[in-house]
Amino acid sequence: QNQKIQTMISQALSLAGSIVKSINPSLLSYPPPSIEESGHDVCYLGTRGEDDPQNVIYCRDLPPGQRGMVGSWYIHPERHVLESIAFVVVSFSIIIRILPTLSKYPEKQHDNLNPPLLVRIATFIFFTCQIIYKSTGYPGKILFMAMPCNIVWIMWAALCFLPLKTQAMHIMYQLIVPYTSLAIVAVATPDTTDLTMWMEVPFFFSMHYALIVYPIYFLWSGRISVLSPGDGLVSNFLNWWTLACAFFALFYFGVAAPLSLIFGINLNYMLSPPPTPGDIISGPNFRLQSTLACAVAFFLLQFLVTIASVFGRAGRKSSSLKKII
Prior knowledge:
Blueprint: H1 2-21, E1 42-44, E2 57-58, H2 77-98, H3 110-113, H4 117-135, H5 148-161, H6 166-188, H7 200-220, H8 233-263, H9 286-324
Antiparallel strand pairs: 1-2
Helix pairs in contact: 1-2, 2-8, 4-5, 5-6, 6-7, 6-8, 6-9, 8-9
């Protein structure tokens, strides 16, 4: 009986893998070399998977910057199916479990959440420039607006220019805090492979630095806080960290991965590993390793901000007592 079930599961997985691979048969089984090696390196097969010289797309024929972002079947289609189903189901379950339990942000303090004029102006400039860079590059480059730091920019743009409800703004700010760790990582280990346009590299660094400065200002000025008066410190911390991980996994395994396969672009490194020192993230488990690395980064920054906020609150209370005395 167990063997029958295993056989049925194996057959179903194999069928699902075949369907997934049929989404884009032009992808190679491994990413092409980042630098031309043979003079006729292939980046894509034919539309039906043909490997004859008349149908393949050579890397030398791609627009500048696209070569480093070419997708591939680095991991088997069956693995895509398993990981996507698992992450989407688990993440969605976590989100619907935690969201209703979050404490409500006071409506009377709504004005604290409205970004000041200078932040709105800066956000408009950065967001507009990023749209221009992504829409005028190689075909499909606009999809990289779904990269983590660009998603954070979309969140900031929404906070600045959309009429959001107070609780929605509160949730977005709380998620932005751990997601800021991604901007720190991007600055520390930059991948500028596809940044070939005028001033695109300096803009890359300036807009990531802005993503780091924004939450520092909002936290320092007291406009937002990672502490919740109505919740325990640990439970509040764990809720927001878990929610950040769940939203991140849901989007990238449920949306970014399918988009990567459809358009043949390695969006957020969902199809092959990112460049890391010593290739510490590699092999068939690279997406699990990347997910764990992101979860750790979220945890560390959320932890540091929480500790700093606790000490800051204690310092303000102490100052108030001294004034009273």
